[in-house]
Amino acid sequence: xxxxxxxxxxxxxxxxxxxxxxxxxxxxxxxxxxxxxxxxxxxxxxxxxxxxxxxxxxxxxxxxxxxxxxxxxxxxxxxxxxxxxxxxxxxxxxxxxxxxxxxxxxxxxxxxxxxxxxxxxxxxxxxxxxxxxxxxxxxxxxxxxxxxxxxxxxxxxxxxxxxxxxxxxxxxxxxxxxxxxxxxxxxxxxxxxxxxxxxxxxxxxxxxxxxxxxxxxxxxxxxxxxxxxxxxxxxxxxxxxxxxxxxxxxxxxxxxxxxxxxxxxxxxxxxxxxxxxxxxxxxxxxxxxxxxxxxxxxxxxxxxxxxxxxxxxxxxxxxxxxxxxxxxxxxxxxxxxxxxxxxxxxxxxxxxxxxxxxxxxxxxxxxxxxxxxxxxxxxxxxxxxxxxxxxxxxxxxxxxxxxxxxxxxxxxxxxxxxxxxxxxxxxxxxxxxxxxxxxxxxxxxxxxxxxxxxxxxxxxxxxxxxxxxxxxxxxxxxxxxxxxxxxxxxxxxxxxxxxxxxxxxxxxxxxxxxxxxxxxxxxxxxxxxxxxxxxxxxxxxxxxxxxxxxxxxxxxxxxxxxxxxxxxxxxxxxxxxxxxxxxxxxxxxxxxxxxxxxxxxxxxxxxxxxxxxxxxxxxxxxxxxxxxxxxxx
Length: 633
Hints:
The protein is mainly beta. 6% of the residues lie in helices and 21% in strands. The protein has helices at residues 2-27, 363-369, 455-461; strands at residues 39-40, 47-48, 51-54, 57-60, 109-111, 114-116, 139-144, 147-152, 156-157, 177-178, 206-210, 223-226, 233-235, 278-281, 297-300, 351-353, 356-358, 376-380, 386-391, 399-402, 405-408, 443-445, 448-450, 468-472, 478-482, 490-493, 496-499, 526-530, 537-538, 543-546, 553-555, 557-558, 610-615, 622-626. β2 and β3 form a beta hairpin.
């Protein structure tokens, strides 16, 4: 209840202050809205000492609760106004506020027992007891961020600015001009002081120039400031030098008519000519005027600033090659000019060549110059003219024409005559090279009549027994010759007959070697040993080389120690039969051979076999033991 009483007390003080300020302003002749509607503020929704910042201006909260809502029903707690409410302490009997118990919000301070925001309180701005004061008429003091600031009440401005920066109210007339900003305080051209600076339409008017001919350009110096065109003051661009001619203005294109059409101070600038003036002219190639027949002409201005056609000029034309003049005006006359090359320049078929008028050769002279003795010849003559198929005649009998030259007739190279008239006869003349010069196939070779070898001789000389060869004979001819085939049992390889049957026992190729003894057979002879008993082993020292077995010479292995017994040969099984024979030809008999068969025969026919033979190493005698008796015989 104490806090509610403090709030009520504070609100009463606010209302008394506002009432006192209103009486003071009315007494001084000023009008003032008790709501302070229109005083400027910065932070929307901010509150200070009963005022609320709304829409950029301060309004009073005398009839608004501290939370910013309007009392609208019986549920709101009314300000104490009768004896039933708890009265404010006013004497010693009342209980004073317990300042030690008061707790303020973090952004408030306790000033005179009341929690206030020193950032916005005008009575305690920045610190308790530091109040903000107004300066002069129609001014309002505010606390902004803990600092006192001043502003004008709504509808007033401090036009002379005399109270800004002073702390002495007596030295300021305050907000002395009544004015309400419009258009958000931005000046527009509407005849009203929108920004309340004491000026109307400053810096927003348009300069309109007098434009009598309505060509969009006005007369410089004839102007007025206005928000919109007014009569002939309608052009926004100046510079019109003739306001009675709509075709004359700075935006026009200069015409060649004797007037300054574009108002730049110059007349007919850029026009090729004026009036009817004349001037020399020439339309030919640069550098040809005054050369040869070429000369300048004259042109006349047509009065509208344009030149007429060039009259009486002479320009280059195609060079005439026999008139003694420089027609194309390049400084060269007739045949001196390359344009006349090969062109007719006089009479009798003359043509220009090497800068002179040239007389072409006759056909005979042309053929001679071309070294053509006969036939048709083509080429360039002495005047540089290309001549084609000039007939240079024929050749005498016994000769013929080849490549424009008379040559010895190939069929006459053995007649003993110089038929082509070159001083050479038959094979002496190179025209007869390799040509027939006599019988038996003789031909001209190295300036003589040569008889070549026959095929057989060439094959023999080349060592070719068979096949085809290519060879140059003694007369310089390259010939391909068939040297024939080979006999039976042979074939041709690299022009040589080689053995082809290596098992018929014949020397088919005649080289003295038969079958495998011939290297052509790609084989070697075999050593065969004499094998009389046919056991596959022959007698050492009795052998012959052959391509195949021959008679008793059939064994390819030797070492047989008894060639009459097929049971005796190297590698045979040794037999212990008391016959003292060496069956395996290893130099030992069965009785002394450790390899002998362990079985012995029954010498007395008693029917007992013998499984052991004991050999006396001193005299090689054999003792056979009977089995099963174990007695030795």
